[in-house]
Amino acid sequence: MTLESFVSVSNNSDFPIQNIPFGIFSTSDKSTPRVGTAIGDKAVDLSEVAKAGLLDGVQGLNDPVKIFSESSLNTFMSLGRPVWRATRLAIQDILSKDNAKLRDNSELLQKVLVPLTEVKMHLPARIGDYTDFYCSREHATNVGIMFRGKDNALQPNWLHIPVGYHGRASSVVVSGTDIRRPAGQKLPAKDAKAPVFGPSGRLDIELEVGWFVGKGNNLGEKIDINDAQDHLFGLVLVNDWSARDIQAWEYVPLGPFLGKSFGTSISPWIVTMDALEPFLVSGPVQASPEPLPYLQENKPSAYDINLEVQIKPAESSKFETVTVSNLKHMYWSVTQQLAHHTVNGCNMRSGDMGATGTISGPEKGSYGSLLEITWSGRDKIAFENGVERTFLQDGDEVKITGRAGKDSSLGYNIGFGECSGKILPCLYQ
Amino acid sequence: MTLESFVSVSNNSDFPIQNIPFGIFSTSDKSTPRVGTAIGDKAVDLSEVAKAGLLDGVQGLNDPVKIFSESSLNTFMSLGRPVWRATRLAIQDILSKDNAKLRDNSELLQKVLVPLTEVKMHLPARIGDYTDFYCSREHATNVGIMFRGKDNALQPNWLHIPVGYHGRASSVVVSGTDIRRPAGQKLPAKDAKAPVFGPSGRLDIELEVGWFVGKGNNLGEKIDINDAQDHLFGLVLVNDWSARDIQAWEYVPLGPFLGKSFGTSISPWIVTMDALEPFLVSGPVQASPEPLPYLQENKPSAYDINLEVQIKPAESSKFETVTVSNLKHMYWSVTQQLAHHTVNGCNMRSGDMGATGTISGPEKGSYGSLLEITWSGRDKIAFENGVERTFLQDGDEVKITGRAGKDSSLGYNIGFGECSGKILPCLYQ
Ligand SMILES: [Ca+2]
Ligand SMILES: [Ca+2]
Ligand SMILES: [Mg+2]
Ligand SMILES: [Mg+2]
Ligand code: NI
């Protein structure tokens, strides 16, 4: 039986009834942010669906009106996977073409369905902590070659540890938020002895996928690797904007800081792990070395999700693709990242976010940062009409999209919407 | 005129009427956390003071009952320094021996004053983000010598940048919370090629001072150095517990992660910048090199605060002092840390926390970590009755205290209470 909705969904839509992502939105006539899902080109106001009693009786979802009237998903996220799953199935049922309850209630439909073009999206969660990983072998190798040469490209720990570092939660913003070019300390020349202050001249993107913690863990206890997937609420697209000149000068020995913390963009709809389950595949072989036992998984844990980065240069009127990559290239899985993160007893809270690190594939056309695509600024990227770029200029717009199952035989796509942002000029010289 | 309270305050107290720190507490008969201050050996329930109308009319403090009935200081912190100042002065007035309003109202006194021994302290704020700096020249030099030798002790950026990195906010805990020894990846020997998994064998402390952001800044805008002090709500003591073996293996190239995120303890009472103003002194000379203009301050910005670390080994019955240091040794001031942190446009939110990094003084007796005191485990620390330590053992207790004006002629001390924690055995082998 194919699941089908009475809401029309084009073949190419990111949001068929099989998806049912969760997000926070508001509308011009009701500015209070609330919980919604997306289907076709419509947002579905789940607070209205709940008020109509259509979510009554979902196992474990006590007080759906309250939970879906909140301005973040944190409470819903804290309920755990059985509840997320039951809720998603209930929503699919409500939206299915065979269910008359909403379909034939035109007054309710009016309140529940809003064109996606008319909604304002907000951050889906209050993000307590944000952690950025560095888990693509191709990306780590490329960066390593540029900085340390081919023979020492990967650091000694890289094949043992899903390397990560704490990021800045306050500056995570939702897709569509403008990004201000940061100023900071940078070296005026590669072998300069003293830094100068000024706007970053090497403003870059990082193509990443983010994961949200649903149910957390207590301080002092770990999340077991075999349990990790159930703790994940879902995935989003991430652009981890990076100022390479600021980063290069500051990062030794304690890691990236102001080169990253001026902004991190995420797509607004969290696509659930349940929706993505059909796209689980085996990731890269981890045999030499084998991971330590706490990182060993006994089932596929990579996701086949196509990822694309497009840029619209300031002087251009159209987006052009600069890279096509895939989440399945990632050496360390998102579940390995979560298990590692908590093995020291670090506590996760509902709404905490991780990001994979830049997802580069094996060829130049699949590199996830301008640093790699231009090989540290050596090779220009050619756009139409003679426009060229190494790093981002003011007014440039960047858009990341992602879609599972592009070539699958399932007959539908699970998409992520978009993660976009535009560069504003620096305020400080 | 000397300010004096009708509440008795011993000569040696951390909390004279000149202090008026802010914290969150609860009591056995009322488990709802609420805002309080401390005077002598009493906590003062500010929600009850407000309910009695004694804080009515404080400029800018609208709805003091609501604000002081909250379970965190975030709202109060967001009001800005003029309001914090007016509130502190009003509280001093209410507690002064010449004011009969509270003094002679025995029924109200009963509700307002609670012995400090009977209160349970909570985290003073919802900490959105926590940033750990590395701003003691002596500490950075000591660590540098151990890792890279004397000639390359300080990294090239160190004298230009208040080096910092994002920490983990979820695992910041209030003084008195037990700390679970973390497990993780570590090298079995210095030149080993592959890591093993197990409990950290080099569990350490870091003596630090934390600062809380009161009023924040918008994403994309900076906090000017000359404005920075007014954005700070106050200071606390910090023990940034560190697992040196985990940290050493993981930290290249993205910085400390699981070696830190298992727990960070803070003292419960935030001492305001206004209370500390009499203890402002000039910090170390910053002449070679001069800081970039955005880091230049035109007034004293170091604080003369004595800091002491005591340890009670598991097999012992008393605390013994292992280090005595002072915040004034710090090369980069807390205001320089805040100005640097935001110069890229990174937004601060009320309740965000920074920590100075380990505060080591010039001599061995003033080093702020066991790593330095034992010179990486080479020299044992001798306690009474033949007890010895290099790093912490299960059951060991650590207590940090801090006090401004120990030898000042002001006639009072501004103290911080204590920041303590006990090591529990690791759960995972
Ligand atoms: Ca990144
Ligand atoms: Ca530290
Ligand atoms: Mg970022
Ligand atoms: Mg810590
Ligand atoms: Ni300001």
Number of helices of chain A: 12
Distance between the termini of chain A: 62 Å
Provide the β-strand percentage band of chain A: 25-35%
Q: In this structure, how is the largest beta sheet of chain A organized?
A: 8 strands, mixed
Structural class of chain A: alpha+beta
What binds here, in terms of ligands, is: calcium ion, magnesium ion, nickel (II) ion
* Quaternary structure type: homodimer
Poorly predicted runs of chain A are none
Number of strands of chain A: 26
Indicate the percent of residues in helices of chain A. Answer: 10-25%
Q: What would the average pLDDT of chain A be, to the nearest integer?
A: 96
What is the radius of gyration of chain A computed over CA atoms, rounded to a whole number of angstroms?
A: 22 Å
Shape of chain A: globular
Give the largest interface pair and sizes: A-B, 65 and 65 residues
Keywords (chains A, B): Calcium, Hydrolase, Magnesium, Metal-binding, Phenylalanine catabolism, Tyrosine catabolism
Protein name (chains A, B): Fumarylacetoacetase
Pfam families (chains A, B): FAA_hydrolase, FAA_hydrolase_N
EC number (chains A, B): 3.7.1.2
